[in-house]
Amino acid sequence: MDPEYEEWNCNMRREMQEIIPGLFLGPLACTKLEMLVEAGITHIVCVQHEKEVSFMQPSFPEKFKFIVINLKDRDSIMIPIFSKVKVFVDNALKDGGKVLVYGNTGTCVSASLVIAYVMETNHMSHADAHALVLKKRQCIGPNETCLRQLKEYEPIFKAVRAHLNGHTSEMTGRQKRQFDEVEENISLISKMDIC
Questions:
Q1: How many C-beta neighbours within 10 Å does residue 190 have?
Q2: Higher pLDDT, 10 or 66
Q3: Which of 6, 7, 33, 106 is deepest in the core (most CB within 10 A)?
């Protein structure tokens, strides 16, 4: 048996799981102060949909650094948000912090944000990153919109990486267009107040 594999049970849906060192994924139920402190959480990404705003508010904003991702619905465009979350998580981990990404159930959109982070950080395919996150939190189930956007994000982050490494000549025309579109979207998102 794989030493990293932990036998899954239904109660674990209400807990957070550490996906990679310092990055946790979980549901609203795991945002109790004692659970957050015990896990050493310092930073939190709260994913809320328009209909969840009344009960999906950041818990203990005076104790943790937060970003709140507000989505109109489960089919919202998330690709520009992937980069914003990556910067937040990277900064937290660089400072020795630990990050919890959570949503109401911690299975769809919040899981997709973690998959995108793992994919880009570890230079993985969307399928391999999805498999890694699923192995740690076995109840995830990104919807078709999320899965499609993760698949679309793979060539985008590769193009961005090629651009940052000075290999823009290696980018295909499609990658270049996607890169330019992402840069434009990131610029728009950075002007939004998500904290």
A1: 12
A2: 66
A3: 106
pLDDT band at 56 (very low <50, low <70, confident <90, very high): confident
- Residue among 98, 84, 116, 104 at smallest CA distance from 31: 104
Write down the residue that tokens 């994000």 correspond to.
153
The H-assigned helical ranges of the chain are 33-39, 79-94, 109-121, 126-136, 144-164, 173-190
* Contact present, 166 and 41 (Cβ < 8 Å): no
Q: Rounded distance, CA 190 to CA 83, Å?
A: 10
Q: Could you give the angle at which helices 109-121 and 144-164 cross, rounded to 10 degrees?
A: 30
Please state the φ and ψ torsions of residue 69, each to the nearest 5 degrees: -100, 110
Amino acid at 150: L
